[in-house]
Amino acid sequence: MTTSTLFTRSPWTGQADTAELDQWTAVATRVAGQLEGGALERDRTSALPHEPLDLLREAGLINLLIPSAFGGEGAHWETAFRAVRIIARVDASIGQLLGYHYLNQACVTFYGPDESRQAAWYTASAANQWVWSDSFNPVSPDLSIVWDDGTGTGTGTPGYRLNGLKRFATGAAVADKIIAGGIAEGGEFDGELVVFAVDGNRAGVEHQDDWDHLGYRASASGSVRYNNVLITADDVIGVDHEEPFSSIVTPGVQLLFGNIYLAVAEGALAQARTLTLARPNAWFLSTAERYADDPIVHRTVGELVARTRAVEALADALGRQFDTAIARGGATTAADRAELEIAIAGLKIVSTEVGLEVSSRVYEVTGASSTKSSIGLDVFWRNIRTHSLHDPVDYKKIEVGAHYLTGAVQPVSLYT
């Protein structure tokens, strides 16, 4: 394996124009319409989402962020986050798979060794419409990545041997490429944090199918076990040198979560509107003839809609800010990275709280009949309640508050 100088140019420049946003908003809306009818069944069966991913491929959404020079659609991150949000309104599991795909695919840029290798990865991904996932969960034990010259295993093929278990590997069971990494032992990358992309069905890659949680049931979030998996030079993306630019991937993940939680609120409101308009009569003490005309219902809905729209405005602004930040490439400074991190942490706070509130309080206007399992209104709350616990929002509040008062910035991690 050979090491190249890390490139410093980002393949994403400028901002999305109205035509781009309108085009892909329409595409994502159409796909969301196709996904909506099967969302509840996917939740109930925890089925691996192969068909939804095929819909995303057919619509061009899988290649959305790959530059056109490499065969992709050449869109911007603001557009991608908006597309994710539209999909997540009807199915948060599929929305997150798409968002993770974008961020893991972009590891080719964040950790990529040089522009020629970057071009090769993106060109192959676009041509094959690869779906990207990862098994980088920081709370799981580190993976073992040990150099083997080929004689120890008797294969004659030199490379690293990957072993270990990673939990919560969302999308890995249906992905073409899984981003993973760890500290290499021996070989060219000895002692370095090497990042690579392994085929999802390579020999020794075992998908445990052990996801059994309250929500996100269609997200293919089970564990991945690696048993002596061969990692060759062709699999290596690069080395994590802890540069500010490469670590922008984490604020990107947090921005994805903020958009997902917002989408949960928007989806819950949309279904609640339909259910409320269909309710006959009104409460016996009300002066209105229908629940939909009751001022108390109006007050509740108005409060929830206003808060949701405020979060939407913040998310849209941060989508554009992310495009500005990522365009800096290797010129990104620690201060640039910190500014982005704190801004997105603010979104994470309000989107979590609004998403939880809206998905719970919509029952106040939809009534007891909406608690039927066949209606599925509970999916929204179950999804956000499940996901938001993996990254406690109280620590985001501390992060934002400390920075506002003292200028303190949390150490860079896979959560900050």
From TrEMBL:
One GO MF term attached to the UniProt entry: monooxygenase activity
Protein name, entry field: Dibenzothiophene monooxygenase
Highest taxon listed in the record's lineage: Bacteria
Reaction equation(s) it catalyzes: dibenzothiophene + 2 FMNH2 + 2 O2 = dibenzothiophene 5,5-dioxide + 2 FMN + 2 H2O + 2 H(+); dibenzothiophene + FMNH2 + O2 = dibenzothiophene 5-oxide + FMN + H2O + H(+); dibenzothiophene 5-oxide + FMNH2 + O2 = dibenzothiophene 5,5-dioxide + FMN + H2O + H(+)
Family, similarity comment: Belongs to the DszC flavin monooxygenase family.
InterPro entries: Acyl-CoA_DH_C, Acyl-CoA_Oxase/DH_mid-dom, Acyl-CoA_Oxase/DH_mid-dom_sf, AcylCo_DH-like_C, AcylCoA_DH/ox_N, AcylCoA_DH/ox_N_sf, AcylCoA_DH/oxidase_NM_dom_sf
Subcellular location: Cytoplasm
Domain Acyl-CoA oxidase/dehydrogenase middle: 159-229
Record-annotated membrane-spanning stretches: none
EC numbers, comma separated: 1.14.14.21
Source organism: Leifsonia kafniensis
Domain Acyl-CoA dehydrogenase C-terminal: 257-391
Keywords: Flavoprotein, FMN, Monooxygenase, Nucleotide-binding, Oxidoreductase
Keyword Membrane in annotation: no
Pathway the protein takes part in: Sulfur metabolism; dibenzothiophene degradation
Keyword Translocase part of the UniProt annotation: no
